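Q: For a teaching session next week I want to show students how multiple molecules come together into a single three-dimensional assembly. I've collected the sequence lines for a complex. Could you give me the predicted structure tokens for the whole thing so I can convert them for display?
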Amino acid sequence: MVATDGRPTPKRESPAFDLSTYLKERQVQVEAALDRSLPIIYPETIYEAMRYSLLAGGKRLRPILCIATCELAGGTMEMAMPTACALEMIHTMSLIHDDLPAMDNDDYRRGQLTNHKVYGEDMAILAGDGLLAYAFEYIAAQTKGVPAERVLQVIAWLGHAVGAGGLVGGQVVDLQSEGKLDIQEETLTYIHTHKTGALLESCVVCGGILAGVTNSEMERLSRYAQNIGLAFQIIDDILDITSTQEELGKTAGKDLQAQKVTYPSLWGIETSKAKAQELIEAAKTQLEPFGEKAEPLIALAEFITSRTN
Amino acid sequence: MVATDGRPTPKRESPAFDLSTYLKERQVQVEAALDRSLPIIYPETIYEAMRYSLLAGGKRLRPILCIATCELAGGTMEMAMPTACALEMIHTMSLIHDDLPAMDNDDYRRGQLTNHKVYGEDMAILAGDGLLAYAFEYIAAQTKGVPAERVLQVIAWLGHAVGAGGLVGGQVVDLQSEGKLDIQEETLTYIHTHKTGALLESCVVCGGILAGVTNSEMERLSRYAQNIGLAFQIIDDILDITSTQEELGKTAGKDLQAQKVTYPSLWGIETSKAKAQELIEAAKTQLEPFGEKAEPLIALAEFITSRTN
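A: Of course. Below is the structure for the complete assembly, covering every listed component.
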């Protein structure tokens, strides 16, 4: 097999890639880096509130995607770690603000009380703001061994991914669509490619930028990320219907309750599952030219369809 | 007169600096740049909400401070404009979030309804998030003619100034101090050097970084900014007591109502005024080595004590 860029792909010689061990190792490294990133100083309450949600567990899928892509493209974990942590800070701020009474009004997240239930609404708003600002500071101040131009590109990408052209925009259309049962697939896709997809894509793109990938490699990585992002959301919608609160760690059945149109409500559960599987296959196809270096990203794509929470 | 760094200060030969004309010109330029920075696209509501507060007038003191410092240090307005706009975006997001019911619960700002009164709490939270993310994107993507390393330094500074170590931290201590009438001057100074001071200092520091000032020049500029920042807050506290809502464009007498300890409540109005004047004089002293190039910054310092809203 020859990659599209003309480089021969090396034959598989290593033993089968063990995703479970890989994820565990990376999770430990990311947890440690996140813990170190945010020491508690005066005024303690705000750092405690930020840490409460930032260190509340979770799969750390976003940081791991960023690191895996950076390594795939010839970079190191060290180059990617500040951006990886920043991605988790941004993801966490979006969860804190989404859970607020004025937004989704959720009391539980990852099996624990949401930030505002513990620290109050005012602190939760400020904890989100603090995490968002810190994410950019952290990338700018802590990234080592990467040309400054690339770091700026990462910041520009990430700012766009979280702003009105990305996550915030997706959330806006989502809020505006609540209770409307005539939402079209086009609108639903807008919501998800922005609310969830934009940040997931950023993990992969930013990992690639840090390592200095070529334009054609970046296009493949972007398409991989877009596909897994949408698959991720479809699975999320299915789990909201089929899981209990205990399995999910957050309120289940929220979409139905909020009269939200979802992929399963448009297509049914079985077709939605098949569609997610198709997207994962398409994502994996994009990685073929990278050969066995892409094993972590391939395994991560498969992990997304098999997850149960 | 010889500056402390040994360079002779040129004799004044230009006509007296006209601050009023200078401010008007700069305001027009900043308004135009802000207007261009944020076109309305889909989903329109969020861009309208962001623009509603971003373009609601105001003195544009922060962008002007940034541009004036960059020019003082040998840079150009063009180099500073993206950062200048970002500073106003960040300032605006802090106002939108501060005004929320869960925070200061304010209905009016600059004589207009606050963001959440017009767009709802959910949109106001998201508009703030969107502006904060966009500020960093805008600096990273739009700054031209400045080495990338300096732009990263600006982003790191600004991230710190708005986060838990700056504006957010000041807001936290402010909220925690409400209703406590035994607040010490030390705590009050912490609140103001962080809630207002950190961002004002950033305007000056970032302008200096963009132009590539020396370390000793940066120290002087920082001290100038810290002094005018504190003076600015003292005047703000005085105006809250002595002004009507019409003059102020926002609810007057809020501090007394919220049982907030302020400088005038600690020192009385006359001593507070004298203290602000002292700080302005100290600020101006820091600028002496820069000679007549510092005229805009000197005039801006004086403007702060003479303002009435």
